[in-house]
Amino acid sequence: MKGFFKFVFASMLGFILSFIVLGLLLVVGIVGLISAAGEEPAKVEANSIIHFSLNYPIVERTVKNPLDNIDIAGIQSNKTLGLNDILAALKRAKTDDNIKGIYLDLSGVQGGMATVEEVRNGLLDFKKSKKFILAYSEIYSQKAYYLASVADKIYINPEGILEFTGLSSQSPFFKGALEKLEIEAQVIKVGTYKSAVEPFILDKMSDANRKQVTSFLGSLYQHMLSGVSSSRKISTDSLFAMANQLKIQKAQDAVTYKLVDGLRYKDQVIDELKTRTGIDKKTDLKSVSLMDYMKANKPEEGDLDSRVAVVYASGEITGGEGDDESIGSERISKALRKVRLDPKIKAVVFRINSGGGSALASDVIWREVALTKKVKPVIVSMGDVAASGGYYIACAADSIFAQPNTITGSIGVFGIIPNMQKFFNNKLGITFDGVKTAEHADLGSTVRPLTASERFIIQTEVNRIYATFTKRVADGRKKTQAYVDSIGQGRVWSGTEALKIGLVDRLGNIDDAIRSAAKMAKVKNYKLVSYPVQKDPFEAIFSGGEDKLKEHFSKLQFGENYVYYQQLQTALKITGIQARLPYTLNIN
Protein backbone atom coordinates (compact mmCIF):
# COMPACT_ATOMS: atom_id res chain seq x y z
CA MET A 1 0.00 0.00 0.00
CA LYS A 2 2.89 2.34 0.83
CA GLY A 3 4.34 1.73 -2.66
CA PHE A 4 0.96 2.44 -4.19
CA PHE A 5 0.77 5.88 -2.54
CA LYS A 6 4.33 6.63 -3.65
CA PHE A 7 3.33 5.82 -7.23
CA VAL A 8 0.18 7.97 -7.02
CA PHE A 9 2.13 10.88 -5.48
CA ALA A 10 4.84 10.65 -8.16
CA SER A 11 2.21 10.59 -10.92
CA MET A 12 0.41 13.61 -9.45
CA LEU A 13 3.69 15.51 -9.11
CA GLY A 14 4.56 14.73 -12.73
CA PHE A 15 1.12 15.88 -13.85
CA ILE A 16 1.39 19.12 -11.86
CA LEU A 17 4.87 19.88 -13.22
CA SER A 18 3.71 19.19 -16.78
CA PHE A 19 0.70 21.46 -16.23
CA ILE A 20 2.97 24.25 -14.95
CA VAL A 21 5.33 23.89 -17.92
CA LEU A 22 2.44 23.92 -20.40
CA GLY A 23 0.94 26.92 -18.64
CA LEU A 24 4.27 28.74 -18.82
CA LEU A 25 4.57 27.92 -22.51
CA LEU A 26 1.03 29.17 -23.08
CA VAL A 27 1.75 32.50 -21.35
CA VAL A 28 5.05 32.87 -23.20
CA GLY A 29 3.36 32.01 -26.49
CA ILE A 30 0.57 34.54 -26.02
CA VAL A 31 3.02 37.26 -24.96
CA GLY A 32 5.24 36.44 -27.93
CA LEU A 33 2.38 36.50 -30.43
CA ILE A 34 1.07 39.81 -29.09
CA SER A 35 4.58 41.24 -29.26
CA ALA A 36 5.08 39.95 -32.81
CA ALA A 37 1.71 41.27 -33.93
CA GLY A 38 2.56 44.80 -32.81
CA GLU A 39 6.09 44.78 -34.12
CA GLU A 40 6.92 46.92 -37.13
CA PRO A 41 10.02 46.76 -39.33
CA ALA A 42 12.78 49.10 -38.18
CA LYS A 43 12.83 52.48 -39.92
CA VAL A 44 16.07 53.17 -41.73
CA GLU A 45 17.23 56.77 -41.52
CA ALA A 46 19.32 58.46 -44.18
CA ASN A 47 23.09 57.92 -43.94
CA SER A 48 22.68 54.68 -42.00
CA ILE A 49 24.85 51.60 -41.82
CA ILE A 50 23.88 47.96 -41.29
CA HIS A 51 25.33 46.52 -38.10
CA PHE A 52 26.09 43.12 -39.61
CA SER A 53 26.47 40.59 -36.80
CA LEU A 54 26.18 36.80 -37.09
CA ASN A 55 26.05 35.87 -33.41
CA TYR A 56 23.17 33.45 -33.89
CA PRO A 57 23.06 30.13 -35.77
CA ILE A 58 22.42 30.56 -39.49
CA VAL A 59 19.67 28.25 -40.78
CA GLU A 60 18.45 27.81 -44.34
CA ARG A 61 15.39 30.01 -43.96
CA THR A 62 14.05 32.24 -41.23
CA VAL A 63 12.01 30.39 -38.62
CA LYS A 64 8.73 32.00 -37.61
CA ASN A 65 9.39 32.47 -33.90
CA PRO A 66 7.28 34.96 -31.91
CA LEU A 67 9.48 34.32 -28.85
CA ASP A 68 12.62 35.93 -30.29
CA ASN A 69 12.76 38.63 -27.64
CA ILE A 70 11.23 36.69 -24.74
CA ASP A 71 13.23 35.58 -21.68
CA ILE A 72 11.13 34.04 -18.89
CA ALA A 73 12.56 32.08 -15.96
CA GLY A 74 15.90 31.94 -17.71
CA ILE A 75 14.41 30.09 -20.69
CA GLN A 76 15.36 32.00 -23.78
CA SER A 77 14.20 31.30 -27.29
CA ASN A 78 16.80 29.94 -29.67
CA LYS A 79 17.24 32.85 -32.07
CA THR A 80 18.37 32.03 -35.57
CA LEU A 81 19.20 33.92 -38.75
CA GLY A 82 17.71 32.70 -42.01
CA LEU A 83 20.24 32.55 -44.84
CA ASN A 84 17.45 33.37 -47.29
CA ASP A 85 16.70 36.64 -45.50
CA ILE A 86 20.38 37.54 -45.00
CA LEU A 87 20.95 37.30 -48.75
CA ALA A 88 17.72 39.17 -49.52
CA ALA A 89 18.73 41.95 -47.10
CA LEU A 90 22.12 42.33 -48.80
CA LYS A 91 20.45 42.61 -52.21
CA ARG A 92 18.07 45.27 -50.90
CA ALA A 93 20.83 47.19 -49.13
CA LYS A 94 22.78 47.34 -52.39
CA THR A 95 20.17 49.71 -53.87
CA ASP A 96 18.84 51.28 -50.64
CA ASP A 97 19.83 54.95 -50.73
CA ASN A 98 19.55 55.19 -46.94
CA ILE A 99 22.25 52.55 -46.47
CA LYS A 100 25.77 53.93 -46.92
CA GLY A 101 27.73 50.86 -45.89
CA ILE A 102 28.06 47.78 -43.75
CA TYR A 103 29.80 47.39 -40.42
CA LEU A 104 30.91 43.76 -40.08
CA ASP A 105 30.93 43.01 -36.35
CA LEU A 106 32.27 39.47 -36.46
CA SER A 107 32.79 38.45 -32.87
CA GLY A 108 31.08 35.16 -33.70
CA VAL A 109 30.02 33.33 -36.87
CA GLN A 110 27.70 30.38 -36.38
CA GLY A 111 27.40 28.74 -39.77
CA GLY A 112 28.92 25.99 -41.87
CA MET A 113 31.60 26.54 -44.49
CA ALA A 114 29.23 26.67 -47.48
CA THR A 115 26.82 28.93 -45.58
CA VAL A 116 29.68 31.33 -44.87
CA GLU A 117 30.53 31.16 -48.58
CA GLU A 118 26.97 32.19 -49.50
CA VAL A 119 27.11 35.18 -47.14
CA ARG A 120 30.58 36.13 -48.39
CA ASN A 121 29.37 36.05 -52.00
CA GLY A 122 26.45 38.25 -50.96
CA LEU A 123 28.87 40.77 -49.44
CA LEU A 124 31.01 40.74 -52.58
CA ASP A 125 27.91 41.47 -54.64
CA PHE A 126 27.00 44.32 -52.26
CA LYS A 127 30.44 45.86 -52.88
CA LYS A 128 29.54 46.34 -56.55
CA SER A 129 27.36 49.23 -55.36
CA LYS A 130 30.61 51.05 -54.38
CA LYS A 131 29.31 51.31 -50.83
CA PHE A 132 31.83 50.55 -48.12
CA ILE A 133 32.29 47.51 -45.89
CA LEU A 134 34.28 47.94 -42.70
CA ALA A 135 35.12 44.98 -40.43
CA TYR A 136 36.09 45.07 -36.76
CA SER A 137 36.43 42.46 -34.05
CA GLU A 138 38.29 41.76 -30.85
CA ILE A 139 38.61 38.11 -31.84
CA TYR A 140 38.48 36.78 -35.41
CA SER A 141 37.88 33.07 -35.82
CA GLN A 142 39.01 31.67 -39.18
CA LYS A 143 35.44 31.68 -40.50
CA ALA A 144 34.98 35.23 -39.26
CA TYR A 145 38.21 36.37 -40.90
CA TYR A 146 37.27 34.65 -44.17
CA LEU A 147 34.12 36.79 -44.18
CA ALA A 148 35.97 39.92 -43.06
CA SER A 149 38.53 39.58 -45.84
CA VAL A 150 36.02 41.07 -48.32
CA ALA A 151 35.93 44.37 -46.39
CA ASP A 152 37.53 47.60 -47.63
CA LYS A 153 39.12 47.98 -44.21
CA ILE A 154 39.72 45.35 -41.55
CA TYR A 155 40.51 46.42 -38.00
CA ILE A 156 41.31 44.48 -34.85
CA ASN A 157 41.49 45.45 -31.20
CA PRO A 158 45.12 46.21 -30.17
CA GLU A 159 44.97 43.35 -27.68
CA GLY A 160 42.79 41.17 -29.91
CA ILE A 161 43.28 37.76 -31.47
CA LEU A 162 43.18 36.64 -35.08
CA GLU A 163 43.10 32.87 -35.49
CA PHE A 164 45.03 31.88 -38.60
CA THR A 165 46.21 28.36 -37.98
CA GLY A 166 44.79 26.22 -40.79
CA LEU A 167 41.73 23.96 -40.67
CA SER A 168 41.34 20.92 -38.46
CA SER A 169 38.69 18.23 -38.09
CA GLN A 170 38.25 16.25 -34.90
CA SER A 171 35.80 13.52 -33.96
CA PRO A 172 35.17 11.57 -30.74
CA PHE A 173 35.56 7.79 -30.58
CA PHE A 174 33.37 5.82 -28.17
CA LYS A 175 34.95 2.36 -28.41
CA GLY A 176 36.69 2.62 -25.04
CA ALA A 177 33.53 3.78 -23.29
CA LEU A 178 31.49 1.00 -24.87
CA GLU A 179 34.07 -1.57 -23.80
CA LYS A 180 33.93 -0.32 -20.21
CA LEU A 181 30.15 -0.66 -20.36
CA GLU A 182 30.51 -4.07 -22.08
CA ILE A 183 28.40 -2.98 -25.04
CA GLU A 184 29.34 -4.37 -28.46
CA ALA A 185 28.52 -2.36 -31.58
CA GLN A 186 27.62 -4.98 -34.22
CA VAL A 187 28.35 -3.28 -37.53
CA ILE A 188 27.21 -4.26 -41.02
CA LYS A 189 28.30 -1.90 -43.80
CA VAL A 190 29.29 -1.43 -47.42
CA GLY A 191 32.06 0.96 -48.38
CA THR A 192 35.76 1.13 -47.64
CA TYR A 193 35.33 4.78 -46.62
CA LYS A 194 31.97 4.41 -44.85
CA SER A 195 33.34 5.61 -41.56
CA ALA A 196 30.10 6.54 -39.81
CA VAL A 197 30.56 3.37 -37.75
CA GLU A 198 34.20 3.98 -36.82
CA PRO A 199 33.57 5.87 -33.56
CA PHE A 200 31.88 2.76 -32.18
CA ILE A 201 34.42 0.11 -33.21
CA LEU A 202 37.77 1.98 -33.31
CA ASP A 203 39.71 4.29 -31.02
CA LYS A 204 41.17 6.34 -33.90
CA MET A 205 40.66 7.05 -37.60
CA SER A 206 41.19 4.25 -40.10
CA ASP A 207 43.77 4.80 -42.85
CA ALA A 208 40.99 5.10 -45.45
CA ASN A 209 39.11 7.66 -43.38
CA ARG A 210 42.27 9.66 -42.73
CA LYS A 211 42.91 9.70 -46.48
CA GLN A 212 39.47 11.07 -47.37
CA VAL A 213 39.40 13.68 -44.58
CA THR A 214 42.91 14.86 -45.55
CA SER A 215 41.74 15.20 -49.14
CA PHE A 216 38.49 17.14 -48.67
CA LEU A 217 39.83 19.25 -45.78
CA GLY A 218 42.78 20.23 -47.96
CA SER A 219 40.34 21.20 -50.71
CA LEU A 220 38.33 23.40 -48.31
CA TYR A 221 41.50 25.01 -47.01
CA GLN A 222 42.85 25.76 -50.48
CA HIS A 223 39.57 27.43 -51.40
CA MET A 224 39.60 29.54 -48.25
CA LEU A 225 43.20 30.65 -48.85
CA SER A 226 42.37 31.50 -52.47
CA GLY A 227 39.49 33.71 -51.36
CA VAL A 228 41.61 35.57 -48.81
CA SER A 229 44.44 35.84 -51.36
CA SER A 230 42.14 37.44 -53.93
CA SER A 231 40.68 39.94 -51.45
CA ARG A 232 43.86 40.89 -49.60
CA LYS A 233 46.29 40.62 -52.52
CA ILE A 234 48.54 38.17 -50.65
CA SER A 235 49.81 35.02 -52.35
CA THR A 236 48.37 31.70 -51.19
CA ASP A 237 51.92 30.45 -50.54
CA SER A 238 52.49 33.33 -48.15
CA LEU A 239 49.16 32.69 -46.42
CA PHE A 240 49.98 29.00 -46.09
CA ALA A 241 53.34 29.85 -44.54
CA MET A 242 51.73 32.27 -42.07
CA ALA A 243 49.43 29.55 -40.80
CA ASN A 244 51.96 26.73 -40.93
CA GLN A 245 54.59 28.72 -39.01
CA LEU A 246 52.02 30.29 -36.66
CA LYS A 247 53.20 33.78 -37.54
CA ILE A 248 50.01 35.49 -36.34
CA GLN A 249 50.38 35.32 -32.57
CA LYS A 250 49.30 38.83 -31.58
CA ALA A 251 47.26 41.63 -33.10
CA GLN A 252 50.29 43.53 -34.37
CA ASP A 253 51.38 40.43 -36.33
CA ALA A 254 48.13 40.59 -38.28
CA VAL A 255 48.97 44.19 -39.26
CA THR A 256 52.59 43.33 -40.06
CA TYR A 257 51.57 40.55 -42.44
CA LYS A 258 48.77 42.69 -43.94
CA LEU A 259 45.90 40.45 -42.90
CA VAL A 260 44.32 43.52 -41.29
CA ASP A 261 44.67 47.24 -41.93
CA GLY A 262 45.15 48.54 -38.44
CA LEU A 263 44.72 48.33 -34.67
CA ARG A 264 41.65 50.14 -33.38
CA TYR A 265 39.51 50.40 -30.31
CA LYS A 266 35.74 50.33 -30.72
CA ASP A 267 35.35 54.10 -30.23
CA GLN A 268 37.87 54.75 -33.02
CA VAL A 269 35.95 52.44 -35.34
CA ILE A 270 32.71 54.24 -34.53
CA ASP A 271 34.34 57.59 -35.26
CA GLU A 272 35.52 56.31 -38.65
CA LEU A 273 32.03 55.02 -39.44
CA LYS A 274 30.63 58.47 -38.63
CA THR A 275 33.17 60.10 -40.93
CA ARG A 276 32.33 57.65 -43.74
CA THR A 277 28.62 58.41 -43.42
CA GLY A 278 29.10 62.16 -43.13
CA ILE A 279 27.94 62.44 -39.53
CA ASP A 280 29.47 64.76 -36.94
CA LYS A 281 31.45 62.83 -34.33
CA LYS A 282 29.34 64.37 -31.55
CA THR A 283 26.20 62.86 -33.10
CA ASP A 284 25.05 59.28 -32.58
CA LEU A 285 25.88 56.87 -35.38
CA LYS A 286 22.83 55.91 -37.43
CA SER A 287 22.66 52.14 -37.70
CA VAL A 288 20.19 49.30 -38.07
CA SER A 289 20.90 45.74 -36.97
CA LEU A 290 20.98 43.00 -39.58
CA MET A 291 18.12 41.20 -37.84
CA ASP A 292 15.93 44.33 -37.87
CA TYR A 293 16.81 45.12 -41.48
CA MET A 294 15.91 41.56 -42.47
CA LYS A 295 12.40 41.99 -41.07
CA ALA A 296 11.61 44.51 -43.79
CA ASN A 297 12.35 42.01 -46.57
CA LYS A 298 9.51 41.71 -49.06
CA PRO A 299 8.55 38.65 -51.14
CA GLU A 300 10.00 38.51 -54.63
CA GLU A 301 7.87 40.35 -57.16
CA GLY A 302 7.09 38.79 -60.50
CA ASP A 303 4.48 37.19 -62.69
CA LEU A 304 2.06 35.43 -60.34
CA ASP A 305 1.31 32.85 -63.03
CA SER A 306 5.00 31.94 -63.35
CA ARG A 307 6.67 30.74 -60.19
CA VAL A 308 9.90 29.05 -59.19
CA ALA A 309 9.55 26.99 -56.03
CA VAL A 310 12.39 26.50 -53.55
CA VAL A 311 11.85 23.32 -51.53
CA TYR A 312 13.97 23.35 -48.36
CA ALA A 313 15.24 20.06 -46.93
CA SER A 314 17.50 20.54 -43.92
CA GLY A 315 18.67 18.16 -41.19
CA GLU A 316 18.57 14.43 -40.55
CA ILE A 317 16.49 12.33 -42.94
CA THR A 318 13.79 10.34 -41.16
CA GLY A 319 10.38 8.88 -41.79
CA GLY A 320 7.31 10.87 -40.75
CA GLU A 321 6.65 14.60 -40.77
CA GLY A 322 9.87 16.18 -39.57
CA ASP A 323 10.17 19.97 -39.24
CA ASP A 324 12.38 22.88 -40.32
CA GLU A 325 15.35 21.23 -38.59
CA SER A 326 14.82 17.68 -39.85
CA ILE A 327 13.81 16.09 -43.15
CA GLY A 328 10.68 14.04 -42.67
CA SER A 329 10.01 11.96 -45.77
CA GLU A 330 6.25 12.59 -45.50
CA ARG A 331 6.56 16.36 -45.24
CA ILE A 332 9.10 16.75 -48.06
CA SER A 333 7.22 14.27 -50.30
CA LYS A 334 4.01 16.26 -49.85
CA ALA A 335 5.85 19.47 -50.72
CA LEU A 336 7.33 17.95 -53.88
CA ARG A 337 3.94 16.58 -54.94
CA LYS A 338 2.36 19.99 -54.36
CA VAL A 339 4.89 21.84 -56.52
CA ARG A 340 4.71 19.12 -59.17
CA LEU A 341 0.94 19.41 -59.50
CA ASP A 342 0.77 23.22 -59.34
CA PRO A 343 0.59 24.52 -62.94
CA LYS A 344 1.79 27.97 -61.87
CA ILE A 345 5.10 26.52 -60.66
CA LYS A 346 7.35 26.22 -63.71
CA ALA A 347 10.55 24.96 -62.06
CA VAL A 348 11.82 23.64 -58.73
CA VAL A 349 15.00 24.33 -56.78
CA PHE A 350 15.59 21.60 -54.20
CA ARG A 351 17.78 23.12 -51.47
CA ILE A 352 19.49 20.33 -49.52
CA ASN A 353 21.52 20.64 -46.33
CA SER A 354 21.77 17.14 -44.87
CA GLY A 355 24.27 14.49 -43.87
CA GLY A 356 21.66 11.81 -44.55
CA GLY A 357 19.83 9.38 -42.32
CA SER A 358 17.32 6.63 -43.07
CA ALA A 359 17.97 4.87 -46.38
CA LEU A 360 14.25 4.03 -46.70
CA ALA A 361 13.14 7.63 -46.11
CA SER A 362 15.79 8.80 -48.60
CA ASP A 363 14.36 6.50 -51.27
CA VAL A 364 10.83 7.77 -50.60
CA ILE A 365 12.00 11.35 -51.27
CA TRP A 366 14.11 10.26 -54.28
CA ARG A 367 10.95 8.87 -55.89
CA GLU A 368 9.17 12.23 -55.61
CA VAL A 369 12.17 14.06 -57.07
CA ALA A 370 12.28 11.62 -60.00
CA LEU A 371 8.54 12.08 -60.67
CA THR A 372 8.78 15.87 -60.44
CA LYS A 373 11.69 15.90 -62.89
CA LYS A 374 9.43 14.31 -65.53
CA VAL A 375 7.04 17.26 -65.30
CA LYS A 376 9.26 20.32 -64.78
CA PRO A 377 12.94 21.20 -64.27
CA VAL A 378 14.44 20.26 -60.89
CA ILE A 379 17.72 21.88 -59.86
CA VAL A 380 19.48 20.91 -56.64
CA SER A 381 21.31 23.54 -54.60
CA MET A 382 23.59 22.05 -51.95
CA GLY A 383 24.28 23.82 -48.66
CA ASP A 384 26.97 22.98 -46.12
CA VAL A 385 26.46 19.28 -46.62
CA ALA A 386 24.52 17.05 -49.01
CA ALA A 387 26.05 13.66 -48.38
CA SER A 388 24.99 10.02 -48.15
CA GLY A 389 21.17 10.18 -47.88
CA GLY A 390 21.52 13.89 -48.66
CA TYR A 391 23.12 12.95 -51.98
CA TYR A 392 20.63 10.11 -52.52
CA ILE A 393 17.73 12.60 -52.60
CA ALA A 394 19.71 14.91 -54.91
CA CYS A 395 20.94 12.52 -57.59
CA ALA A 396 17.72 12.38 -59.65
CA ALA A 397 17.72 16.14 -60.39
CA ASP A 398 18.34 17.66 -63.81
CA SER A 399 21.34 19.55 -62.48
CA ILE A 400 23.23 19.85 -59.19
CA PHE A 401 24.90 23.01 -57.85
CA ALA A 402 27.33 22.92 -54.93
CA GLN A 403 29.63 25.39 -53.26
CA PRO A 404 33.38 24.63 -53.47
CA ASN A 405 33.29 23.94 -49.74
CA THR A 406 30.12 21.83 -49.68
CA ILE A 407 30.61 18.35 -48.20
CA THR A 408 29.00 15.74 -50.45
CA GLY A 409 29.25 12.16 -51.72
CA SER A 410 29.47 9.49 -49.00
CA ILE A 411 27.65 7.01 -51.22
CA GLY A 412 27.41 4.03 -48.89
CA VAL A 413 25.14 2.37 -46.32
CA PHE A 414 25.47 0.74 -42.91
CA GLY A 415 23.59 -0.69 -39.98
CA ILE A 416 24.47 -0.90 -36.28
CA ILE A 417 22.83 -3.26 -33.79
CA PRO A 418 24.19 -2.91 -30.25
CA ASN A 419 24.68 -6.12 -28.27
CA MET A 420 23.98 -5.08 -24.67
CA GLN A 421 23.78 -8.56 -23.15
CA LYS A 422 26.94 -8.24 -21.01
CA PHE A 423 26.01 -4.70 -20.00
CA PHE A 424 22.67 -5.89 -18.60
CA ASN A 425 24.11 -9.11 -17.15
CA ASN A 426 27.36 -7.86 -15.62
CA LYS A 427 26.70 -4.18 -14.93
CA LEU A 428 23.04 -4.25 -13.90
CA GLY A 429 22.44 -7.88 -12.97
CA ILE A 430 19.55 -8.13 -15.42
CA THR A 431 18.97 -11.27 -17.50
CA PHE A 432 16.46 -12.00 -20.25
CA ASP A 433 14.57 -15.10 -21.27
CA GLY A 434 11.60 -15.75 -23.55
CA VAL A 435 10.02 -17.83 -26.30
CA LYS A 436 9.56 -17.31 -30.03
CA THR A 437 7.49 -18.92 -32.73
CA ALA A 438 10.08 -18.67 -35.50
CA GLU A 439 13.87 -18.88 -35.74
CA HIS A 440 14.38 -15.19 -36.45
CA ALA A 441 11.40 -13.73 -34.58
CA ASP A 442 13.72 -11.70 -32.35
CA LEU A 443 16.10 -10.62 -35.10
CA GLY A 444 17.64 -7.30 -34.13
CA SER A 445 17.34 -7.87 -30.38
CA THR A 446 19.83 -5.80 -28.42
CA VAL A 447 20.09 -8.26 -25.51
CA ARG A 448 21.95 -10.99 -27.37
CA PRO A 449 24.63 -11.21 -30.09
CA LEU A 450 23.77 -11.78 -33.75
CA THR A 451 24.23 -15.30 -35.05
CA ALA A 452 26.37 -15.93 -38.14
CA SER A 453 23.25 -16.54 -40.25
CA GLU A 454 21.63 -13.31 -39.02
CA ARG A 455 24.75 -11.32 -39.88
CA PHE A 456 24.62 -12.82 -43.37
CA ILE A 457 20.94 -11.88 -43.75
CA ILE A 458 21.53 -8.26 -42.70
CA GLN A 459 24.71 -7.95 -44.77
CA THR A 460 22.78 -9.17 -47.83
CA GLU A 461 20.17 -6.46 -47.25
CA VAL A 462 22.84 -3.77 -46.79
CA ASN A 463 24.48 -4.91 -50.05
CA ARG A 464 21.12 -4.74 -51.83
CA ILE A 465 20.46 -1.20 -50.62
CA TYR A 466 23.96 -0.11 -51.64
CA ALA A 467 23.33 -1.58 -55.12
CA THR A 468 20.06 0.38 -55.31
CA PHE A 469 21.81 3.56 -54.15
CA THR A 470 24.58 3.29 -56.75
CA LYS A 471 22.00 2.47 -59.45
CA ARG A 472 20.00 5.59 -58.53
CA VAL A 473 23.16 7.71 -58.81
CA ALA A 474 24.28 6.01 -62.04
CA ASP A 475 20.90 6.66 -63.68
CA GLY A 476 20.64 10.23 -62.41
CA ARG A 477 24.20 11.20 -63.29
CA LYS A 478 24.35 9.19 -66.53
CA LYS A 479 27.32 7.14 -65.34
CA THR A 480 27.96 3.42 -65.18
CA GLN A 481 27.20 1.73 -61.90
CA ALA A 482 30.77 0.47 -61.79
CA TYR A 483 32.08 4.05 -62.01
CA VAL A 484 29.73 5.21 -59.23
CA ASP A 485 30.97 2.34 -57.07
CA SER A 486 34.57 3.40 -57.71
CA ILE A 487 33.90 6.96 -56.43
CA GLY A 488 31.39 5.72 -53.86
CA GLN A 489 32.37 3.23 -51.15
CA GLY A 490 31.24 5.85 -48.64
CA ARG A 491 33.92 8.36 -49.64
CA VAL A 492 33.32 12.03 -48.79
CA TRP A 493 34.23 14.78 -51.26
CA SER A 494 34.35 18.57 -51.25
CA GLY A 495 32.24 20.42 -53.82
CA THR A 496 35.37 21.18 -55.84
CA GLU A 497 36.35 17.50 -55.88
CA ALA A 498 32.77 16.43 -56.63
CA LEU A 499 32.72 18.63 -59.75
CA LYS A 500 35.84 16.92 -61.10
CA ILE A 501 34.40 13.40 -60.66
CA GLY A 502 30.93 14.24 -61.96
CA LEU A 503 28.87 14.14 -58.77
CA VAL A 504 27.83 17.78 -59.29
CA ASP A 505 27.42 19.88 -62.42
CA ARG A 506 28.41 23.37 -61.37
CA LEU A 507 29.88 25.35 -58.50
CA GLY A 508 27.50 28.07 -57.49
CA ASN A 509 25.15 29.44 -54.86
CA ILE A 510 21.40 29.20 -54.44
CA ASP A 511 20.81 32.25 -56.67
CA ASP A 512 22.74 30.54 -59.46
CA ALA A 513 20.52 27.48 -59.05
CA ILE A 514 17.36 29.63 -59.16
CA ARG A 515 18.50 31.40 -62.32
CA SER A 516 19.33 28.04 -63.92
CA ALA A 517 15.91 26.62 -63.02
CA ALA A 518 14.13 29.65 -64.51
CA LYS A 519 16.24 29.41 -67.66
CA MET A 520 15.42 25.71 -68.08
CA ALA A 521 11.73 26.53 -67.66
CA LYS A 522 12.10 29.43 -70.14
CA VAL A 523 10.62 32.01 -67.76
CA LYS A 524 12.11 35.46 -67.24
CA ASN A 525 9.59 37.15 -64.98
CA TYR A 526 8.67 34.92 -62.05
CA LYS A 527 7.81 34.90 -58.37
CA LEU A 528 9.78 32.85 -55.83
CA VAL A 529 7.77 30.68 -53.45
CA SER A 530 9.12 28.41 -50.73
CA TYR A 531 8.05 24.98 -49.45
CA PRO A 532 7.23 23.16 -47.22
CA VAL A 533 4.85 25.73 -45.77
CA GLN A 534 6.17 26.63 -42.32
CA LYS A 535 4.09 25.93 -39.26
CA ASP A 536 1.99 28.62 -37.69
CA PRO A 537 4.12 30.29 -34.96
CA PHE A 538 1.66 29.36 -32.19
CA GLU A 539 1.59 25.73 -33.32
CA ALA A 540 5.39 25.67 -33.47
CA ILE A 541 5.62 26.74 -29.82
CA PHE A 542 3.78 23.66 -28.59
CA SER A 543 5.08 21.07 -31.04
CA GLY A 544 7.80 19.19 -29.23
CA GLY A 545 7.70 21.62 -26.29
CA GLU A 546 9.01 19.03 -23.82
CA ASP A 547 11.84 18.03 -26.17
CA LYS A 548 12.80 21.68 -26.64
CA LEU A 549 13.03 22.15 -22.87
CA LYS A 550 15.21 19.05 -22.54
CA GLU A 551 17.43 20.30 -25.34
CA HIS A 552 17.69 23.74 -23.71
CA PHE A 553 18.84 22.37 -20.34
CA SER A 554 21.14 19.80 -21.95
CA LYS A 555 22.91 22.61 -23.80
CA LEU A 556 23.29 24.53 -20.53
CA GLN A 557 24.77 21.45 -18.84
CA PHE A 558 27.16 20.31 -21.58
CA GLY A 559 28.10 23.68 -23.06
CA GLU A 560 30.27 23.40 -26.18
CA ASN A 561 30.49 19.62 -25.59
CA TYR A 562 26.76 19.30 -26.30
CA VAL A 563 27.56 18.29 -29.89
CA TYR A 564 29.21 15.07 -28.66
CA TYR A 565 26.30 14.26 -26.36
CA GLN A 566 23.93 14.92 -29.25
CA GLN A 567 25.95 12.65 -31.52
CA LEU A 568 25.81 9.76 -29.04
CA GLN A 569 22.07 10.29 -28.52
CA THR A 570 21.50 10.18 -32.29
CA ALA A 571 23.53 6.97 -32.60
CA LEU A 572 21.43 5.28 -29.89
CA LYS A 573 18.23 6.19 -31.76
CA ILE A 574 19.34 4.81 -35.13
CA THR A 575 16.96 2.20 -36.53
CA GLY A 576 17.05 0.42 -39.89
CA ILE A 577 19.69 0.66 -42.61
CA GLN A 578 21.33 4.09 -42.77
CA ALA A 579 22.71 6.27 -45.56
CA ARG A 580 24.46 8.71 -43.29
CA LEU A 581 27.57 10.90 -43.34
CA PRO A 582 30.55 9.75 -41.26
CA TYR A 583 29.63 11.11 -37.81
CA THR A 584 29.45 14.86 -37.24
CA LEU A 585 32.19 16.79 -39.02
CA ASN A 586 33.52 19.50 -36.74
CA ILE A 587 35.79 21.73 -38.82
CA ASN A 588 37.67 24.54 -37.07
UniProtKB/TrEMBL annotation:
Domain Peptidase S49 positions: 126-278, 372-524
Protein's GO biological process: signal peptide processing
Full protein name: Protease IV
Active site: residue positions: K194 (proton donor/acceptor), S388 (nucleophile)
NCBIfam families xrefs: SppA_67K, SppA_dom
One GO term describing the cellular component: membrane
Keywords, ordered alphabetically: Hydrolase, Membrane, Protease, Serine protease
Family membership noted in the UniProt record: Belongs to the peptidase S49 family.
Localization: Membrane
Annotated GO MF terms: serine-type peptidase activity
Pfam families hit by this protein: Peptidase_S49
